[in-house]
Amino acid sequence: MAENTLRPKSLQGKPPWKTQEGQNRDAQNVDFDALFVLAEWGRGCSDRGHAVATFRFFSPAGTGLNDCIDQERLQALASARHEGCGLAGDFYFDPEIYRAEIDQIWRGGWLFAGHTCQIPEPGDFFTYEIDCESILILRDEDHCIRAFYNLCRHRGMRLASGGGHATRFVCPYHQWNYDCKGQLCSSWGMGPDFDKSEWALLPVAVHDPAGFVYISLAEQPIPFEQVGAQLVKFATPQGLERACIAKCAEYEIDANWKIIWENNRECYHCNVNHPQYIKANFDHYNTDDCTPAIQTRIDAQVERNRAKWETAGLAATHRQTGMASFPDPESESGWCAINRTVLVEGYMTETMDGQQAAPLMGDYADPDVGTLRMRTMPNMWNHSSCDHAVTTRLTPAGPRKTLIQVLWLVDHDAVEGRDYQLDQLLPFWQLTSEQDWEICEQVQKGIESRAYRPGPFSTYKEKNLEAFVRWYLKQLVRD
Fold this sequence. Notes:
Layout: E1 5-6, E2 16-18, E3 24-26, E4 36-42, E5 52-58, H1 71-80, H2 95-106, E6 110-115, E7 124-130, E8 133-139, E9 145-149, E10 163-165, E11 168-170, E12 177-178, E13 184-186, E14 205-207, E15 212-216, H3 225-235, E16 243-253, H4 257-264, H5 270-273, H6 275-280, H7 292-309, E17 336-341, E18 371-376, E19 380-384, E20 389-396, E21 402-411, H8 422-425, H9 427-447, H10 463-476
Parallel strand pairs: 1-11
Antiparallel strand pairs: 2-3, 4-5, 6-15, 7-8, 7-10, 8-9, 11-12, 12-13, 14-15, 16-21, 17-18, 18-19, 19-20, 20-21
Helix pairs in contact: 4-9
């Protein structure tokens, strides 16, 4: 077989999940693979004090057959929430609610899968696994990004794992093989009347604006055009399509994916928990604690930035205290928000000392461009500085578990050891991320207490949490 033909590794055992430290750990990526009965022993809801056995019948993932999910119960839980307060504890550990989220949100929207720079050449590929699906994302001979369900059309065997390069994808079961456009090229033993053209790989909707790769598992994907235009407008100068991966860190977090987003959408916790972040940024200040002196500093940075960059289209768009608003539950494209913001005086980039740590990215000719923030529900946020970008991808792996991938990107010509050092590039966002992951795991434990009742959001510092909860419930509980 040709050297550049892909054949998966041993099929024995579960595929290893690689932790940040490089140790192998078996991980069950999803809770529901197919039609089955789940026997769940536990406390039950927070208002029940005794162990119960519940048996629930689940429909196959992705079929849209949600008979297992009590829509009246979802409506009741959503309606019981007090405006300005968080969600009931059930939303963070209940298997039925998790199944509804997968079907309504994760299979219904656009998911960030990766960056185009991960597959720079024809034949390059990577896979992304969500729920029971594995998606094969590749670049074909015409340099187009394509996405397919990662399964052989014969008997459903997975074709590839991880990432790599291949001119043909060969099923290890019966050796059916496919080209990079998904066409079935060979299927020995099927007889003269077999029509290969009818058995191409099953396509997945995909868009790749400005270096991002988004996929949708929906039969009729929601509109992408407005969000794609935003990404092109703001992200093109960053040059993510001309970047390379400097570092990939992967985490398995014992917390529901919504807890991680809720933590991301407020900086109420930043002063105590993120000392490195508050040295570089102003958005931890709000109207309740922004002194006249701090406001003067913010105004001066914003005006200096505007005078320098307005004509180039790189001026700050977020110019006030507090975090930028996101998501917008009332807008069709409210699942995406992008803004530029200024950094504290003396900071050129989000590194520990604020100084440039790698060559300038993209179209930048000056390091003093502030920071670009990009976010898309339900699974991506990106912080881009003049010299590097950091992308975080969330993937739910059960009601109580989230897999997180953090990518550091630099200019494609940058060479580690010559142009940048990882010990200068990584710490700012590595520390901030890992501090957050520890917080989120402790929040998950607290929410599962029978004593838990959701408290009120701060009207100064947690407005985004109310917006997130409203967005989430709107996606989950549909008429």
